[in-house]
Amino acid sequence: MALLWLPGAAGSALNCHKTCICASNIVSCSKMNLTTVPTSLPLYTAVLDLSYNNITRLRSEWTLVKLLKLHNLLLSHNGLHFLSSEAFVYVKYLRYLDLSSNNLRQLDEFIFEPLVNLEVLLLYNNQISQIDRSAFGTMVNLQKLYLSQNQISRFPLELVKEKSRLEKLSLLDVSSNKIKMISLDELQVLPAWIKNGLYFHNNPLLCHCDLYTLLAHWYIRKLNSAVDFKDDYTCILPGPQKTQVRVFDLSGDNMNCSTFKEADEEAFLEQTLILGCDTKHRNMLKTWMMPGNVVVTPGRNQTAKVLPDGSLQISPVRSEDSGTYTCLAMSEVFNETIYVVLKGKARGEDSIHSSMLSVTPTHEDPALKAELNRHVAFIDSKDLQGQNGKLNPNGDEDDDDLDAEAGSLMKGKRKEVSSRVHQLRLLRHSHGGLR
Fold first, then answer.
1. Which residues form the Ig-like domain (predicted)?
2. Which long-range contacts (C-beta less than 8 Å, at least 24 apart) are formed by 317-320?
3. Is 7 within a domain?
4. Region 338-346: what's the mean pLDDT?
5. Which residue, of 133, 215, 345, 403, is most buried by count of CB atoms within 10 Å of its CB?
């Protein structure tokens, strides 16, 4: 039987009668017109729901005892505008904190310092305009951070940039803010697993062909952040009218940006070559296979070896190393396969074949999996002429709208389901190495 509690004066002790519902280790006080947090919360409380109330200030004394078992705290829709710098001192084992849909305006330096175990932080739909650069610095276990629908004007690059980023952060949502400028070069070099969860649509970005190139690449790679909100990426055209257009329309009459084309990488004989296995999901078990389906294994007399980060090192590169290299990446939820075709070319010849990536959930229906694999093909760019970027290796008509759109972004290039274009040119060179 659930017990209820009628709210009396502000700060009254919780006794699980009438209004607040106490069910096992869950205490739910949602929509009860509370102005303060009830005191004397049970030490065994694991989930505390205070959403949809009128708790406008969260003071340091909202709990006077350490709630060591509390892992979910819900405070959304309260009109909350003040957080004490010591508000979370006694709840340092929180894993999920919802502060969304309030009136918070700034995030100070030490506000979240005790929350070293937090995994998910919801701050969307506030009035946040200022974020201290170290506000999230101690949150070493944070995986998802939602900052959309605020007044943020600076992109928090430090959260994702190498050497300063939160290592476990795989989703950062800064969409629907007031960000005008983003360091596109910095974003492009991020690992795919970060870009996959990096959402910055619905911001007043200034239109630039580099922005189009970045998002076109992400879309062709089928990163969630670009595919899920393709129509919501907009920018402001130069000029006094400040016309807003879709970023993916910049290849048309608006700015006539060139269709996406991946830059070639060059590898030289007798030097060291590293092939990346840049997967959309992190912490995957990666296995490489050399041409002829030979598994790369430690201790064997091979010129190739798998590095700690999952990439493949070939040293020295020889002409007989040409062929298809396969990276098999596996996790409990997803499998990803990246193919890199390395083919020797004499100096001055055209670029060699593209690499590919397909993403297939391990629980997928075998028939669907076969359909996805149908797109796996290696083909020279000259063979695509007249196809407008659509690849039909079996001669059948492809009705996949997403693939058709991806193909239109890279006319004259081959593409594949969740394709990643990564070209290598193998050249003879007596000096230097991989450029």
1. 240-329
2. 317/267, 317/268, 317/269, 317/270, 317/271, 317/272, 317/273, 317/426, 318/269, 318/270, 319/269, 319/344, 319/426
3. no
4. 72
5. 215
DSSP states of 209-230 = HHHHHHHHHHHHTT-HHHHTTG
Q: What is the DSSP letter of 264?
A: P
Pick from 423, 418, 421, 422: which is nearest to 226 by CA? 418
Q: Is there a single domain that holds both residue 239 and residue 309?
A: no
Q: What is the CATH number of the domain that holds 222?
A: 3.80.10.10
- Crossing angle for the helix pair 401-409 and 209-220, to the nearest 10 degrees: 140
Q: Which of 243, 240, 248 is nearest to 211 (CA)?
A: 248
Residue 259 forms part of a structural domain: no
- Residue 400 exposed, middle or buried by CB count within 10 Å (0-12, 13-18, 19+): middle
Instruction: Pick left, alpha or beta for residue 322 (phi over 0 → left; psi -120 to 50 → alpha; otherwise beta).
Output: beta
Instruction: Let me know whether 223 and 271 are in one domain.
Output: no
Flag whether 9 is in a domain. Answer: no
Q: How confident is the model at residue 11 (pLDDT cuts 50, 70, 90)?
A: low
- Collect all residues with Cβ–Cβ distance below 8 Å to 401 and sequence separation of at least 6: none
* Residues contacting residue 430 through CB under 8 Å, at least 6 positions apart: none
Q: Give me the pLDDT at residue 244, please.
A: 93
Q: Residue range 76-82: average pLDDT?
A: 97
Q: pTM of the entire structure?
A: 0.77
pLDDT in tens, 228-253: 999 999 999 988 888 999 999 998 77
Residues 299 and 323 in one domain: yes
Looking at residue 367, the DSSP 8-state letter turns out to be H
Domain residue limits at 49: 21-254
Burial 52-61 (b: 16+ CB within 10 A, else e): bbebeebeee
Which of residues 434 and 296 earns the better pLDDT score?
296
The count of domains in the chain is 2
Q: Decide which of 106 and 40 is more confident.
A: 106
Q: Is 28 helix (H, G, I), strand (E, B) or coil?
A: strand
306 and 195, same structural domain?
no
- 137/149 Cα distance (integer angstroms): 22
**Single-letter code of the amino acid located at 55:** I
Domain boundary among 205, 221, 254: 254
CA distance 234 to 290: 42
Q: Is residue 346 assigned to a domain?
A: yes
